[in-house]
Amino acid sequence: MIRPNPRVEPSEIAWRAARTKILAIDIDGTLVDGEGELSPRVESAIERARDAGIAIVLCTGRRYRRTLPLAERLGLIEPIVCNSGALVKQPGAHRTILRSEIDRALFDQIVRLFCEHHYRMVYFLDRGLDSFDFSIDRYPSGSAWFDDYVAKNLDRVEVAGSGLIDRPNTDPPFHVFAIGELDEMLAFEREVHQAIDGRVRTFVQKSRQYDGTMCEILRGDANKWSALAYLAEKWGISTEDICAVGDDQNDVPMIEGAGIGVAMGNAPAHVRDAADLVVPANHADGLAVLIDYLLAKRSSDPIDRSMILRDRDDRE
To answer: Are 218 and 201 contacting, i.e. CB atoms less than 8 angstroms apart?
Structure first.
C-alpha cells in the first residue's frame, strides 16, 4: 500500500508519476533487503521500468566498487551516484563524471577537527578498480570501530602513515569520515558544524556491515540530489520528472528535491515526513510497489537513451 503525505495533493502526484523519466534508487534499505539481498520481485520490476524507458540511477552511500556488481546484475547503463553524492561514475568506461572536491584550506580545517577530537580519518580515493579505495594513516589504530571497518576492507586500503595529510597533493579529497559510537558521532557532527558550518555537509548513519556509526563529511553542496540534478541537466530533463526513493538521512536531499520524493516504510520518521509518498518496507518489496504505481500512471515518452550511451561509450 502507498501512503501519500497529507500535505500533498494526490492528483499532483499522479500527474508527476505519469511524467517520470528518471527513477533514482538508494541501495541499502531500499533496493535490497536487510540482508543485502535483491528480491526477484524487485529485480523484475526494475527490468520493466527500464524497458518502459525510465532511466534507473542508483544513488548510494556505497563506494563505486561495492555498487558496480548490482548495476551490472540489473543491466544498467546509467551513471552511478556513489559516496552519498560526492562522486558520479560511468559504469561502462569506469569514468568519473562528477567529483565534488574539497579545497585544501577546508580539508586542513577538517584534519584539525579530527586531531582535536582524536578520531582517525578514512579518506576515499578515486583511482580506479585496479587500485585502493581509501587511505588511512595507520592500522591497527587502537580504535575498535575504526579497526573493524579497515579489517573488512583490508585488500582495498592504503596505509599512508603521516603522508595521509598530504594526500590532497595527488588525490583530491571529496569524502572522508570518522567512525565510532552513535552518540560520539552525533557530538562530532555538532563540533564540525560549529567550526565550519555551511562549507561542509555531514551524514551520521550506520551500515549493517560494520560495528560503528559513521560521521561522513562532504563538500557543502555535495549530496545525492545535487548529483542527480547535474545528470538531469546534462540529459535535458526537468527535475520535476525525477522520482527519488530512499530510507536514510543521506536520501533526504533527493527526496525533498525530486518531483516525487518517496520514503520506504522502514525509514525513520523524519525521512518519511520529508516524502510525498511512503511505500512498504524493503523486506515487503516496497520498491516494486512503487514501480508498479509509476508504470500504471505512465504517459510520457521514453528517455532518449542515446545521451546515456554517449556517456557510457566516451572513454576520454
So the answer is: yes
pLDDT of residue 314: 57
pTM for this structure? Answer: 0.94
In degrees and rounded to multiples of 5, residue 225 shows phi and psi of: -70, -45
Residue type, 37: E
Is the pLDDT higher at 302 or at 54?
Answer: 54
Fold of 3-100+223-313: Rossmann fold (3.40.50)
CATH class of 104-219: alpha beta
pLDDT in tens, 166-225: 999 999 999 999 999 999 999 999 999 999 988 999 999 999 899 999 999 999 999 999
Taking only the tens place, the pLDDT of each residue in 225-268 is 999 999 999 999 999 999 999 999 999 999 999 999 999 999 99
Q: Where are the domains of the chain?
A: 3-100+223-313, 104-219
pLDDT band, very low/low/confident/very high, at 307 (cuts 50, 70, 90):
low
167 by DSSP, 3-state: which?
helix
Say if residue 302 is preceded by a cis peptide, omega within 30 of 0. Answer: no
d(CA 277, CA 3): 6
Burial of residue 211 (CB within 10 Å: 0-12, 13-18, 19+) is middle
CA 121 – CA 134 distance, rounded (Å): 10
Q: Which of 72, 58, 85, 63 is nearest to 203 (CA)?
A: 85
CA neighbours within 13 Å on the CB side: how many for 86? 28
Q: How many CA atoms lie within 13 A of 148 on its CB side?
A: 15
